[in-house]
Structures are given as C-alpha cells and as structure tokens.
Amino acid sequence: MSDEPQSWAPRDSSGAGASSGNHRPTASGEQPGTNPGKPGKPGKPGKKARPRRTGWRRAIPTWRMTLGTLLGLVVLLGAGVFAAYRLVDIPAANASATAQSNVYLYSDGSVIARDGDVNREKVKLSQVPPTVQHAVLAAEDRDFYSDDRAVDVKAMLRAGWNTVTGKGKQGGSTITQQYVKNYYLGQERTVLRKAKEAIIAVKLNREETKDQIFEGYLNTSYFGRNAYGIQAAAQAYYGKNVEELTTAEGAYLASLLNAPSAYDVVAHPDNRPAAQRRWNYVLGGMVKERWLTAAERATTRFPTPGEAKPSNGLSGQRGYIVQAVEDYLNRRGILDAKTLATGGYRITTTLDKAKQDAFVKAVADNVTAKTSSNRAADRNVRVGGASIVPETGKVVALYGGIDYTKQYVSNATRRDYQVGSVFKPFVLTSAVVNDSTTQDGRRITPNTVYDGTNKRTVVGVQGSTDYAPANEDDVDYGDITVRIATDKSVNSVYAQMAQDVGPAKVRETAIALGIPADTPDLTAAPSIALGTANASVLDMAEAYATLADHGRHGRYVLVEKVTKDGAEIELPERTTEQAVSREAADTTTAVLRSVVEGGTGTAAQTVGRPAVGKTGTAEEDRAAWFAGYTPDLASVVAVMGQNPDTGAQTPLYGALGLPRVNGGGVPAETWAAYTEAALRSSPVQEFDLRTAPGSDEGDELLVDENADGGTDPSSSSDPDTSPDTSPDATPGTTPDGSAPPTPGTNTGGTDEGSVSAPDGIGDGDGDGNG
C-alpha cells in the first residue's frame, strides 16, 4: 500500500455525510449530491425525474397505456379465437349440398317450370386427370398443396377491402374454405359465416388430407348448366366423362368456377371474349407453376363446349324462360347463379300465360307450319320474339325458339344478329331531339326532302365520306321526304340523315331509348342508321316501348316476386325518366304509322287496331325483323337463319317457300297475329300524339306545279305532287321557301338494302337488306 497521504476524508459513521446524498467518491470538480454529467439534477444516478403531465397532455394516453391496451386486446382476441375453436365443431353437410329445385311461375301463379333435381355425380380424385386438377388449382388456389394454412388471412383482408371500396365482391378464400362453404355452410355473405368458415377450415385441415379436401371441392363446386361437380360439368359441357377431358377442356371448366353465367359461350355468345381471357389466365398459371410446358400451351386451342342437353322438364319455351329469368336475376344483382343454384326459390315472373301462349301459336301458324322437310333452307329457320307493356315495362311474352331441348340458345336474348332497318326510327327521333339540320341548313322533319338516289355518297362537313349504301333492289327514288323514305326504308336517305344529325348523337339517342351501351357493333358511323348493331329482340322491344310510352324510359321488368322458405327477397324498384322529349317520340310514332298504312309494313294491318311499326332485314337476308306497337303493347319478331350443325349464320333465301324473307313478310304477319290475339279482350286504344312543329302531313304545302325534278318512283305522276328541285328553288322547299308536299302515297314495296360495312361503314353492294 502507498505511504502517501489520503486525498479524501474518511467515511462519517454518524450519518452526516449521508444527508448530502454523496454515496461515492466524487470526481475532481464534481459537486456532491449531483449526477455526473447532469449538473443540478438531483435523484437517481443517470436518470432524470419524470415531470408531471399537465393541461391537454393529460388526455393523451401514454405509450405504456397504449401498449397495455393493445396487449390486452390481443389476449382477448386470442382467448376468443381459442374459445370459438373449441366451441365450433365440423357440422353435418348442409341442405345446399343437395340443392332443391326452383319453381318458376306465370304472373297468375300457375307453374311455368321447375328446374329439376341437382345434377351431381361424385368421382374419386384419381379419376380426374392431373392436367384437369392442375387447371383447377391454377384458377382457384395455386398454393393449395404447398401451403399448410387452411385460411389465407391476407387474401381475406384484401378481398374484404376490395368489396368495401367498391372493387367488386371477392371471396379471398382458399380451396379448403370454399369447400367448407359449399358443403357445410351456405352462400350468404356475412361476417359470422366467414368466421365460422375459417374455423371449420382450420379444423378440417387437421382432420383430412389435402387430397380428401380437394376431392370434396371438385365434387361440390358449381359449374353452371345445373352441373354440380367436375363429372357433371364434363357431361354438361362436353358430353364425356371426366377421365376423357383434355387439358384445354379442363382449363375451360376451371374458368367457369369463377362465374359460370359469365363464361358460358354457348348460352351467351357475346361472353366469348371474357371467357377466353379467363381461359388464357388459367393456362398461363399452369405454365407459371410448371404444370404445363410453354410448347404444349402454344398448341392448345380454345375448346368451344357443346350445347346443353337439359331435362325434358325444360322443353318447349320453359327452358328459354328459365334461362332468361336466371340472367335477369344475376344481371340485376338480385341472385347470382351460385346462390340461385342452391334451390328452394319461388320466382313469379311478369309473363302473362295467355299472351305467352298467343305468341307460341302465332309463330306456329305463320312460321313453323310453313316449313318443309323437303327444303334445306327451312332447317336454318329460327324465330325470336318479345312483348312489353310500355307503361309498366313488364315483359308479358317471350319466344326463344322452337324447343329448348333442341335449340339451346334463346333467340329472344341473343345479341349476334344485325337488327337492320328497325334501327332507323332512332335516327329520326335523334334528329328531332337535337333539332338537327341538313348539310344546307334545313331543319330535319318528316317532311324534309332528301336525295334518295341509289348508292348516293354520304356527304359530311368535310365533304365526301366515301360511304355509298345501296337501296333495296338498287332503286333510285330521287328527291323524297323523310316520311316516304321511312315508308320505303330508303338507305341512301337515312345514311345521309344519320350523318347530318351526327352518328354519335344517334348512338346516344338509341342508348337513351333502351339499347344497351355495350351492344356489339353499335358504332358511331353513318352506317349505324342501317342497323349494323347486334341488339337482341328483347333490347329492341324495350326501346320501342319507350317510343310507345311517349319517350319515357324504364328498364324492362321480368320478375315480380322472389321468395324462399316463406321469406320475400327485396327486388329493385323500377324507375322511369323522360329519355327523349315527348314531341320527338310522338313524331317518330306518327311517321311509323304510315309504314303500316302504306309502307313496307302493310301486313301488320291485320291487327285490326291502330298500330305502328318498322321492318328491317340484315345483311344478306340473315335475319328479318318487324318491330311495332299499339298504345298498350310493344312487340318485336325476328326470323333468323342459322345452320343447326355449325351454328353459322345463313341467308334465308328460299326458306318457307319464299324467294327471300324480309321484315314486311313473315315477321310482320307473325307480329300482327300475336298482337291481335294478345289484345283481343282489351278495348281499342287510339294514339295520343303531340308531334314537333312542322311534322304533320297537314303542314305540307303544294309545290309550284311548274317545278320539275326527280320524283318518288311510286308517287303520282301529277306534277302537283312532285317535290320542287328546280335550280331557282332552295333545296327542299317551294319557290316561296315553304316545305314541299309529301310525294304520292306508297302502296307497298319490299324492304331495304345492304348494311354490310368494313369498320362499321358499309359496302353498299345492295345484296341484302338494311
């Protein structure tokens, strides 16, 4: 030990030193009772004293309080999950695993059809080809075998968020969860059902193997066409057992699991693009997961399924009606296909049994009775029809085809045939709505004179459009009024009028009247006037019903009531709006009246009451239409040509023993026969019209009898009835500037000319009707 003197005082055993707070030696210059490096801060060595919280800070929880609360919630949640896991058992199979039939009723409560027993046939997983299994996994849950989790929490949260934010309903479920929902629970979308689904899925995942769960899923999933399970689907779509399915077919069936009604390309031909995209997605997933080589994928072609073979319980019109009702419920967001397929629903439609029977009889008498097994063209004849009450929008009759068990696709709702010149009234309506004028500044009315020369080139603001549509039989009409051009369905006049109004405005008017905006080939071009669009018979009936109801539009109604187990399901309320002005709609009605009185639709006069209508024929006579209405009933009839073997559209030349079938013939006759029978017990109603100024025939003035120029070929040779085309006169007026008179009355004639068009323009070859 050093002998040097100590430099600090000895410990004071009396406690006096303790009072100073000095419990250790102090460094040089350090004050007793302080923390080193923190001068003036008494207390525990190395730590500040916590100040008291004052004012508004007292209302904010500390981090300790927040952390404690969160930990408490986690503990409670964990306890809840544990309790739920212990309390919730795997239940017995629910009733939907053996779904009931749905019952479809006429408006009077009489039965239309029952959709039959559920089509299901269980198979072993070993019977399903590996490529088909892989297709289903690629479509629904690619990590099913590699992931031990029965519940994908992230996917569930993502799906819930997408649903809440309006990106569409999504399940976010694994295959195990979907199997639990299909077999043990139900299809309702509730938080409680989803929670039970997750718990049962976890338990099931512990008690059954992946193969057992996947086998159950394949046997309980719904594929559309009333097919439950992969075996039933293989038969329903391809007429073969599951063991015989190809990779391409398996990928298509896997696509259906997402939305069966949206991807059936046979029931709904317009679904093909969406179905092919989904099919490509499945095959792409198989390649990504190395279940299919890129070379095999490159040689795989889309496997169009065969037509369905429904039970005899859906024969005749019954199957078409069931199909239309299912579509209606699905598209209106009332019941989706999977939910409806669980069965047990009683669905009361708006269909009137007497009117439905009248439509069937009218087609039988005017079409079917005229077919012959000795004429090859008669094999191709198809008929579609629809009838709507304008005031209520109720569909009271629907004709889909000869027999649902023989011809699966409904001709009433398909959207793959041109509507022809039944579209022309929408051009006139649009002209009045938009107060449109001709290229030389004349306001367009039924009495406006146009050049009806055959293959006359349509002229726009920038000059020639290079579009020159042909008239029926290449007839030159010369200068004629819009009224006469409507009577005779003159293509050259209406194409020019569509250009004058503006093709985009014509399209807007058609949509406002009820033509769906996504109608194929509803293109804003001059050819839109000639009916290049592929609207359905039901679409056209809705639009004509809007004209009949003085321009008020509301979506058609097909279902009045839906119940299950005594509980009624809420249906959306129909609303109406003034889609076009009453003057515009009524002006069109007034012009269409002359089509029936002396134009191409004179065959409709046999209805025996005030009626209006328009004829139309598609390119190459592949379809012939008549659309018309009385004040209280709007109906459309279309006769179509389709090869029963290939499904290709065919001309109607020679069908029904006629050189050709046009809208003014068989369709108009069928329309008149149906409408007469449907309204036989109803009082005759007259049209109550308020036409736009200058629209009535009485507004026309006699032209100068000395004027010369082209005349309507069917008009009187009296010069007093010929429109003035003299050099001294303003085009479309008499020398004093007034409107010219209507040329002589049309006493009949055939339908209109070609509508075919590259890029929606038209080829003007005159070989078909517009």
TrEMBL record:
GO cellular component: outer membrane-bounded periplasmic space
Swiss-Prot/TrEMBL GO biological process terms: cell wall organization; peptidoglycan biosynthetic process; proteolysis; regulation of cell shape
Protein name: Penicillin-binding protein
Methyltransferase among keywords: no
Lineage: Bacteria, Bacillati, Actinomycetota, Actinomycetes, Kitasatosporales
GO molecular function: penicillin binding; peptidoglycan glycosyltransferase activity; serine-type D-Ala-D-Ala carboxypeptidase activity
Start and end residues of each Glycosyl transferase family domain: 111-286
Basic residues bias locations: 44-56
PANTHER family in alphabetical order: BINDING PROTEIN TRANSPEPTIDASE, PUTATIVE-RELATED, PENICILLIN-BINDING PROTEIN 1A
Biased composition (Polar residues): 16-31
InterPro entries registered for this protein in UniProt: Beta-lactam/transpept-like (IPR012338), Glyco_trans_51 (IPR001264), Glycosyltr_51/Transpeptidase (IPR050396), Lysozyme-like_dom_sf (IPR023346), PBP_transglycosylase (IPR036950), PCN-bd_Tpept (IPR001460)
Key words, A-Z: Carboxypeptidase, Cell shape, Cell wall biogenesis/degradation, Glycosyltransferase, Hydrolase, Membrane, Multifunctional enzyme, Peptidoglycan synthesis, Protease, Transferase, Transmembrane, Transmembrane helix
Domain Penicillin-binding protein transpeptidase, first and last residues per copy: 390-645
Superkingdom to which the source organism belongs: Bacteria
Keyword Transport attached: no
Family membership noted in the UniProt record: In the N-terminal section; belongs to the glycosyltransferase 51 family. In the C-terminal section; belongs to the transpeptidase family.
Low complexity bias spans: 708-737
Region (Disordered): 1-57, 685-770
Reactions performed catalytically: [GlcNAc-(1->4)-Mur2Ac(oyl-L-Ala-gamma-D-Glu-L-Lys-D-Ala-D-Ala)](n)-di-trans,octa-cis-undecaprenyl diphosphate + beta-D-GlcNAc-(1->4)-Mur2Ac(oyl-L-Ala-gamma-D-Glu-L-Lys-D-Ala-D-Ala)-di-trans,octa-cis-undecaprenyl diphosphate = [GlcNAc-(1->4)-Mur2Ac(oyl-L-Ala-gamma-D-Glu-L-Lys-D-Ala-D-Ala)](n+1)-di-trans,octa-cis-undecaprenyl diphosphate + di-trans,octa-cis-undecaprenyl diphosphate + H(+); Preferential cleavage: (Ac)2-L-Lys-D-Ala-|-D-Ala. Also transpeptidation of peptidyl-alanyl moieties that are N-acyl substituents of D-alanine
Compositionally biased intervals (Acidic residues): 696-707
